[in-house]
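Lecture 7 notes: from sequence to structure.

We start with a single chain of 69 residues. Read the sequence below before looking at the structure.
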Amino acid sequence: MANIRNRVRELRTKRGWTQQQLADASGVSRQSINSIECNRYVPSLELALAFARVFACPTDAIFQLEGRP
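Now the structure, written as tokens:
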């Protein structure tokens, strides 16, 4: 089974943002950001695209599929 690895925490801290600041910019709760960063929750496509907009990078620079050829 494939896993989805994310760089949300890395990108957020590079900007010097708190989880709350990213949550506000993305339109979700701080708890959702925490769950994503701790790999307890895989975001929806809509939220992944929101992260791409916020971080100004493609989604595959934020999320990588691991475990499949």
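The chain has one domain: 8-56. Keep this in mind for problem set 3.
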